[in-house]
TrEMBL record:
It is an enzyme of class 2 (transferase). This is protein acetyllysine N-acetyltransferase. Residues 1-250 form the Deacetylase sirtuin-type domain. The lineage of its organism: Bacteria, Bacillati, Bacillota, Bacilli, Lactobacillales. Keywords: NAD, Transferase. It comes from the Bacteria. Its EC number is 2.3.1.286. The keyword rRNA processing does not apply.
């Protein structure tokens, strides 16, 4: 089904009339780059792990501590994609910045693609696979600098301790400073674009309540219940919607 042209024009007009824009994105933003999401039919949570454990169990803090070798085997196989490139969804937001818009990105993704595309203000609620820290001396290591032991566990060459990725696992809390900056960006925005998320992951999904602006746009391939007056909803792939809007803006 084609994207409704009238709604696309309304979306483009809302962008033109807004200066502060906040983009709240989930796993669906990066699927066009080749990274699977979590909860769809082809998502990570429904894939076989090759073990007796579910994917949700394997990306928990307790599993990481108890079975580090299994954790990192799953982590590097399913969650780390160093070769992927940003999609149209990522570049669209950068283009808005180049047009003079004040764009903040609040993302649940851990792939670093928004920064790779060129976005300047990115708040990563669940951290990033690109950042890794020694669990003992806290030395920083990029993804390329990780040195694994024979069991596939990244180790600090200084003290031999496990190098943990700076991602928020199940049973861990979100970074409070990141939360506060994300909420501030949302509360100050004139326009909020929610895309590629089921809004089922808390507390991140509750952030929408802080939006007090004029325009709210929701883009998701499956329907979402968003209780907000005059919300503009697209049940299409994000790239299709952004491509149509970009044609009007350009």
């Amino acid at each position: 089904m084609a994207v409704d042209l009238v709604k696309v024009q309304e979306f483009a007009r809302a962008i033109q009339e807004s200066h502060k824009i906040v983009f709240f994105g989930g796993a669906g933003v990066s699927t066009a780059s080749g990274i699977p999401d979590f909860r769809s039919a082809d998502g990570i949570f429904l894939q076989e792990t090759g073990t007796q454990y579910s994917a949700e169990q394997m990306i928990s803090r307790s599993f990481y501590e108890q079975f580090p070798s299994l954790f990192f085997d799953f982590y590097f196989d399913k969650l780390v994609y160093p070769e992927v490139e940003p999609s149209l969804s990522h570049s669209f937001l950068v283009d808005l910045e180049r047009k003079g818009k004040d764009v903040s990105v609040v993302t649940q993704n851990i792939d670093g693609l928004h920064q790779k595309a060129g976005s300047q203000q990115v708040y990563e609620l669940h951290g990033s696979v690109l950042n890794n820290y020694c669990s003992q001396c806290h030395a920083f290591y990029s993804l390329e600098e990780l040195e694994k032991d024979p069991e596939g566990i990244p180790r600090c060459p200084v003290d031999g301790a496990i190098v943990k990725p700076d991602v928020v696992l199940y049973e861990e809390q979100l970074d409070q400073a990141t939360i506060m900056m994300a909420i501030q960006a949302i509360s100050q925005a004139e326009m909020m674009i929610i895309a590629g998320t089921s809004l089922n992951v808390y507390p991140a999904a509750s952030f929408i309540q802080y939006f007090k602006g004029r325009y709210l746009v929701v883009i998701n391939k499956t329907s979402l219940q968003v209780m907000y007056p005059n919300v503009l909803v697209f049940e299409h792939p994000i790239e299709e919607v952004f491509a149509e809007v970009a044609d009007i803006l350009n």
